[in-house]
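2.7 Reproducibility. Because tokenized structures are sensitive to small changes in the input, we list the exact sequence used for Ferredoxin, including any N-terminal residues retained from the expression construct. No trimming or masking was applied before prediction.
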Amino acid sequence: MKVKVVEEKCIGCGVCISTCPDVFELNDDNKATVKEDADFDSCDLDDAVDNCPTEAIEED
Ligand code: SF4
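Resulting structure tokens (single pass, no recycling of outputs):
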């Protein structure tokens, strides 16, 4: 599974980064983005998707 962040929905809460620090990072606009070298197998992406308060993370 790979994921993407719908930037318009992201409120920059950081929950996804806590769950998957090797996948997500905050950009200069305080929005989560998927890292260029994201390791999608490093964490439970379903958890990240389910725990995002604004449903900004989608399967890609
Ligand atoms: S959990 Fe959702 S709202 Fe929070 S930073 Fe990640 S993508 Fe943005």
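The chain is about 20% helix and 20% strand.
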